[in-house]
Write a structure and sequence with these properties.
It is a single chain. The protein is mainly α and 180 residues long. Helix content is 74%, strand content 2%. It is built from eight helices and two strands; from the N terminus they run E-H-H-H-H-E-H-H-H-H. The chain has a two-stranded parallel sheet with strand order 1-2. Helix 3 runs antiparallel to helix 4. The relative contact order is 0.10.
């Protein structure tokens, strides 16, 4: 398989535009919410605006995803071998399916996994504090890329399924699917 790094310029160029004093939506158009560009901006200030910096950030996010998968599976199954098998499976398929690239989802994946882990814990033992943390993380993910709202809907249903009547879930989902 060919798994070379794919240099998408958006997550390098948009923070550079911000560095040049440009303002998103006024001076340049971006199809996503700008929070990730503002988060990447200080990293590029430290490492420089270069493809090598972009790769360092991408591989750091991928490594963080690897570590998160290992600990998530180990926590959920209480079995080290299951965590290792999951990690090996992900490490093998990630370059093929997701690619070695720096994109929104590359950076968002560890946060998605943490939200899932917190939602599973919340489902077992509901906690207002965990619900707030989950809500803040879901809002932050949605501000990174709008498509995270679908994950948010699934997590909200997962967390509240035992409290929400089935008809309310159906009406809510149909509203989301129609108005999306």
């Amino acid at each position: 398989f060919r798994t070379t790094f794919v240099d998408f310029p958006e997550l390098l160029v948009y923070p550079w535009y911000i560095h040049q004093g440009m303002v998103p939506y006024r001076d340049f158009i971006i199809p996503y919410t700008p929070i990730l560009n503002y988060l990447l901006y200080p990293l590029y200030l430290i490492m420089g605006f270069s493809p090598q910096s972009e790769r360092i950030i991408a591989y750091t996010a991928i490594l963080l995803t690897d570590v998160t998968i290992y600990y998530l599976v180990k926590h959920l199954t209480k079995k080290r071998w299951a965590a290792l098998i999951s990690l090996i499976f992900f490490v093998f398929w990630q370059p093929i399916i997701a690619g070695n690239t720096h994109w929104h989802e590359t950076i968002m994946t560890p946060l998605f996994l943490v939200v899932y882990w917190l939602a599973v814990r919340h489902r077992k033992k509901p906690s207002f504090r965990q619900a707030v943390v989950i809500g803040v993380l879901l809002a932050f993910l949605t501000l990174m890329k709008q498509t995270a709202v679908w994950f948010a809907v699934i997590i909200i249903i997962f967390m509240g399924a035992r409290y929400i009547p089935v008809i309310a879930i159906i009406i809510g989902l149909s509203h989301v699917l129609v108005w999306g």
